[in-house]
């Protein structure tokens, strides 16, 4: 009986180890939105995921510049310099099979990140394998470029709405602090949605938080 319980404890510890070692790939780049990189990255690490923040042509230890986008009564968002963000993994070393989920930050970075062939391949892999994907604000521009939103319901920053429609997706006009879930995909309009955005991503990742 003692051997049985010893073995059972070993199995439980292995299960806990596997669960806590789930990896998330975090895609970002120069002039990404400050909050949309900093906050999700830190929130996901806080709950125990190993998060690899990467950018094409950059390696672990390199930094990216971020931009602060705010809503101050103008016809579009304002932009100010943000913090520098240190990447913790090298893009060239990314093996998509190592990751359980993908998160894509918004801001200006997606405009050029979607031109990178490997970025597109990475996104297609996560959709082909039905793995959890979370994209916020202009991050959805990478999804439309990858051709993975046709027939899907999703949201984005409103200015990206026409791209979603042209790519065959069904744009959802929701409050700026909301999140929309369609199967393995979580999307939000902008950084005010972080609580809902990460909460819904954790759900599709299979995580539970008991208070």
Which shape, going by the Cα principal axes? globular
Q: What's the architecture, going by CATH?
A: 3-Layer(aba) Sandwich
What's the level 1 CATH class? Answer: Alpha Beta
Look up the CATH topology.
Rossmann fold
User: What low-confidence regions span 5 or more consecutive residues with pLDDT below 50?
Assistant: 11-20
Number of helices: 7
* CATH homologous superfamily identity: Class I glutamine amidotransferase (GATase) domain
Radius of gyration: 18 Å
Question: Ends: how far apart?
Answer: 34 Å
Structure description:
- This protein has 211 residues and is α/β, with parallel strands linked by helices.
- It has one domain (23-204): Class I glutamine amidotransferase (GATase) domain (Rossmann fold, 3-Layer(aba) Sandwich), CATH 3.40.50.
- Helices cover 35% and strands 23% of the residues.
- The protein is built from seven helices and eleven strands.
- The protein has helices at 2-20, 34-46, 109-113, 117-128, 140-146, 161-166, 194-204; strands spanning 23-27, 32-33, 50-54, 63-70, 78-86, 101-104, 133-136, 153-154, 170-171, 180-182, 185-188.
- The strands form three sheets. A six-stranded mixed beta sheet has the order 3-1-6-7-11-10, with helices on both faces.
- A hairpin with a 7-residue loop joins strand 4 and strand 5.
- Helix 4 packs across helix 5 (140-146).
- It starts with a helix and ends in a 7-residue tail after the last helix.
- Mean pLDDT is 91; it is low at 11-20.
